[in-house]
Structure formats: structure tokens, C-alpha cells
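Record type: ASSEMBLY
Status: queued
Input:
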Amino acid sequence: MNAECRLRSAEFKYKIEHSEIRIPKSAFERGGSVIEIDFKKGDGLIPVIIQDAFTHEVLMLGYMNRESWEKTLETKRATFWSRSRGKLWAKGETSGHVQEVKEIYLDCDGDTLLVKVNQTGGAACHTGFRSCFHHRHEKGEWKIEGERIFDPKEVYGE
Amino acid sequence: MNAECRLRSAEFKYKIEHSEIRIPKSAFERGGSVIEIDFKKGDGLIPVIIQDAFTHEVLMLGYMNRESWEKTLETKRATFWSRSRGKLWAKGETSGHVQEVKEIYLDCDGDTLLVKVNQTGGAACHTGFRSCFHHRHEKGEWKIEGERIFDPKEVYGE
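Status: finished
Output:
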């Protein structure tokens, strides 16, 4: 926050405290930022980047609606909206490889989340790879990089 | 790749080499993966996670259509489709803070890209912060974390 911004913010807080202006109880009023998650832009869904909190690897991208966002906060485990299955999807509900939420960040536009997690089971991808991003672009082709941590057949069955 | 998968892949290659099956010249045939970018799922747009290749910080999420993807490959600098402006957007075209592409990964479904970049100018966010993800969730509120690297007014004008 630069000096001018701090000044404006202080002035704003003063006016609220002295009832010169009245706004509904908001995050800003309580000392936070005015930003909120914007679920409207993506028709109720927001893309969520999942990053390993320890290795900093990007593991996957999922989507949350308001319900899965609230479920994520409540359970402290990443819960998504599955676009293909059209229902809530608690990550790890079948495999047991849940994602324990460590930190959550919202971007400048309020339309993308970054969630840092502890990936239990060591692999985020349903194919058994550590990260869903295991196809590396090389000379115009996608080469598989990395080894499988688990065999999907053993975890999900045939 | 597990043993069975390796076996199937070897059998498949054998059949191609011995002309038992014919498929058009593909990435798989040339030793790569069968995966391709799926631009259809997102109406021609694919979400692209930008990660700092050196610090591993997640810097931003942008969107690419086929044209901006090809431009990215050609220029080796991240080029997006700006949804708000409805046009191609070569990152850094105004600020000079271009993103030099170091590595590109595609996810298991072919519908999300991860691009590792060298962020010139030190900041990816148009607000002057290093990362667009500078709002940290804390006790139900979004708190600004980190310092501004540049003053947006100096870079973009009023």
C-alpha cells in the first residue's frame, strides 16, 4: 500500500468511526481488503490453482462454485465442482489422497484462487502422477515427464 | 508408465511399424504422447497458469486461444487472449515486463496449461505486485500480502 493509499484508507476509517459515512459491515471496514470472490464471471465457477505448499509444484487446476468454496473452508480440505460429473467433488473422496488446505490466495481481479495444500498420498493426478501437468512441450510435442506415484487401477479399480 | 501400459505402447508401435495399423502422423507415433490442447471445452479459450521458473511462485492466470498459443510459441513470450478487451494481449506490451517462456506443460485432460517463465521487471501484476495472488485469506478476510515492486501510475500512466 503506498502513502496516498494509506492516507485515504485512514481517512475512510476515521469517517466510519465518527459516523460521517455509513457502509454495511464489510471486510474493508474491519481492516481487510475490499476484494471478494467474483463467481459471476465464470457462470458461478472460479478456477482454482492447487500448488504443493512444500515443494511449490503446481499440482492441478480445479473449479469451485460457492458451495464447494464454503465446503473447502469448513473442512479445510480442497473441494471442487466437477464439471464433467456435474456435482461436488471432495478431492480424495475415492483415492483417500485428500488435499489439506494450508494457505489460500485470491488474485487481483477476484476471479482466480490459488490454494496451497499438503497433498496426502503424494500424487494429485488421477493418472497416478504427482502433478496433472506431466506433459512437457518439447519440439512441438508433448512428452511425458516424471514417474507414476501410484497405479490408478489399484486405487480406483478397473 | 506402468508395465502393462509400456507393453501396450510397445505393441502399438510394433503394429504401426509393421503397417498392421495406420494412423495419421501423430505425436504418439513419433514417440510422444497422444494428448493435444483441447480448446473446445472453454469455447476456444484455455486457462494458463504462469509460474516463475526460478522462484516457483504462481504469478497469474491468463487465457489463450489458438492464435495466442501459436504467438507464444513463435515469440517465446507469453501472449494471452484478453477476455475484458476482446483481443490478443502480448504480456508486457505496455509495461515492458514481458514473460520469457522457459517451460510449457499440459495437464492430463489437455484443458489447462502451465507455463514457467522468466518474469522481466520483477512483477507480473498490473497493480505492481510481484504476483497477482497477493490477497491472502485470513480469518474470513482477504489481507494484502507482499510489497509493490512498481508504481502502476509510473508504468501505465494515470
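Annotation: The first strand of chain B starts at residue 46 and ends at 52.
Annotation: The helical segments of chain B are 3-17, 66-75, 152-156.
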